[in-house]
Amino acid sequence: MSRTAVAHAHNEIVQQACSDASAVQDAVNLIAIxxxxxxxxxxxxxxxxxxxxxxxxPVSLTFVSKLNSLCRMSLDREIKAFEAIDRLQRGEDAEFxxxxx
Length: 101
Known about the structure:
By secondary structure, this protein is mainly alpha-helical. It has helices at about 10-25, 30-45, 50-55, 60-70, 75-90. The model has no long low-confidence stretch (mean pLDDT about 95).
């Protein structure tokens, strides 16, 4: 069952996370985006946002949206990625499609 939560605008940690979540929408450096996301997830957790509230926080969803966009995610690409992971774990090479930015 779903419920609602409140993201508190007066919290400096939330403000910085929101600022960076907006800024990364124009970014293309996957490592920098993931690093920023990780840093803000930890800060939000330390500020008392955790569990489902953290997973569904607007900051989390905005970063995930950027990652989905940057990786050109679709259901087909997701399935192929899991198939490739299975092959790699079995010690087999895996070919994958590279979509340029």
